[in-house]
Specification:
Layout (H helix, E strand, L loop, with lengths): L10 E3 H4 L9 E4 L6 H15 L13 E34 L6 E3 L2 E3 L2 E7 L2 E27 L4 E2 L13 H8 L3 E2 L5 H9 L8 E26 L5 E7 L9
Parallel strand pairs: 2-10, 3-9
Antiparallel strand pairs: 1-10, 3-7, 3-10, 4-5, 6-7, 7-8, 10-11
Amino acid sequence: MQTNDQILSRSTPLAQDSSSKKALKHILLVQKISKDYAAIKSIVDKNMVKTFSKMRFLKPKANEIECESIQIYYDSFLIANTKYVIDYYKKREYCIDLDDNVKEVLVFNQNIKPKIVEAKSGIKTKPKKQIIIDSKERINLEISKQIALNRKGRIINRKNLPSAPCESDPIKFLDEYGLDVRHPEVNMWEILKKEVMKKPPDISEVIDESFQVTHQVLIFTPVYEARIVNLSTHEIRIIPISGVTGKIFVL
């Protein structure tokens, strides 16, 4: 089985990012089903009419709604630990107050003439002498973040993912399901990078920066997909139900 190309991570300086295509190893998990067909059918029967309801009082009759089919598939989610490091300069002004009798200040063999500025003192203002030193500070910033994505690349709350025992041989198991396995549909690497690489607003010059995924888990969870039809209007709705928790599954 081949997982989606470069779903997961590599660690490269950004200058090399476009040319580097080496994917790192990742953990693959396939959760076991804990709800059988009979339990899911019961849940579907309880939710069929509600699915077509328009406000509380506009409900179709129960005999107008029919469950055409219930199929199971495996949906995929990515949990990634990321790290963004940027080494940069930012401009900074240092304002130093002086005594009134100071005429000039020598800093690194450079003469700096004081400026007269208005300073507040209570409700009044009074002039004072001050020198302003223009400088650049070098800053190293590191941001670590854990992100969970659904297969369409949308950020989700990891806590909403069900917990369950996992299959012992996930690759073999997914191979057997074939078309019923829904792999990530987007470039996860680019989504992670865009979410984490948010440069500080005060940058004057970037010295170096890099983005890295330090740990990643690709999870496949079982989902029952019930196809419901309104016999009067011929409308079709889909009810996804977690094969782990038996709850409506929307992530």
